[in-house]
Structures are given as C-alpha cells and as structure tokens.
Amino acid sequence: MADTSEIYKYFEPTVQHNTLALSNIHTLTSWGVGTAAGILGLTGWNGFIFFMANWVVISLLVLAVKCEGRPSVYFKASIMDVAGTPLLNTLLSYVLVWTLMHALVYIYD
Questions:
Q1: Could you tell me what percentage of the chain is helix, strand and coil, using 3-state DSSP and rounding each to the nearest 5?
Q2: How many domains does the chain have?
Q3: Left if phi > 0, otherwise alpha if psi is -120 to 50, otherwise beta: which for 70?
Q4: Smallest Cα–Cα separation from 34: which of 99, 106, 82, 83?
Q5: Is residue 59 part of a domain?
Q6: Residues 57, 59, 61, CA angle at the centre, nearest 5°?
Q7: Which SS3 state, helix, strand or coil, does residue 8 take?
Q8: C-beta separation of 96 from 34 below 8 A
Q9: What is the pLDDT of residue 109?
Q10: Mapped to the 3 state alphabet, what secondary structure does 28-61 carry?
Q11: Reported pTM
C-alpha cells in the first residue's frame, strides 16, 4: 500500500495550474524565438540550433526563477515536466512561426 505522504504530496489543481502556466511560457517564447529566427533569415539546421539554444536558456530560467531551483515542489516529474515534456509541441509552434515570418520578410528575394 502506498504511503499517505506520497498520495497527498501534490494537490492536483495546483499541479495543473503550474503545467498550464509553463505551457504558456513555452508557447509564447517559441513564438518570439520563431519570429526572431524568421526575421534573421535563419534556414535549415541554423534555425533548429537557434531553437535548441533558446530552449535551454528558457528552461534554465524557468527552473531558476519560477521554480526557485526546486522543480519537484511544483511538478510531479520534476525536470522532465519543465524541460522535456513540452518540447515537441513547442517545436511545432516554433517551426510554424519561423516559416511564416521568413516567408513574410523574404518573399521578394
């Protein structure tokens, strides 16, 4: 039988709120980074390297500032919830905005 301290360790509405806030942070920053990559004219692997560098910076900032260095207090899976889980959805948003902005800026080149 599970320990009662483990069962009541996380209050589910609070964890869901934290996950939603983290998702909003990652989505909005991916739009900003995608816009910057499109305007800078990054193509191919340079754009993906730009995304990964910014992903690492944003994840470290979230861990340091929002989670105060203790992600296990705010999320069940700790660092995976902050850095790993939302990666694919954020990458798709980034690519969408990146290609849109690149097409808008460099349409007549």
A1: 75, 0, 25
A2: 1
A3: beta
A4: 99
A5: yes
A6: 70
A7: coil
A8: yes
A9: 64
A10: HHHHHHHHHHHHHCCCCHHHHHHHHHHHHHHHHH
A11: 0.81
Tell me, what's the pLDDT at 2? 53
Q: Does residue 19 form part of some domain?
A: no
Domain of 94? 27-105
47 Cβ neighbours under 8 A, 6+ residues apart = 37, 98
Per-residue pLDDT of the chain (109 residues; tens, 9 = 90+): 455 555 556 777 887 888 888 888 889 999 999 999 999 999 999 999 999 999 989 988 888 888 888 877 777 777 777 777 778 888 999 999 999 999 999 887 6
In a domain, 79, yes or no: yes
Q: Is residue 62 part of a domain?
A: yes
Reading the block at residue 96, the tokens are 């969408």
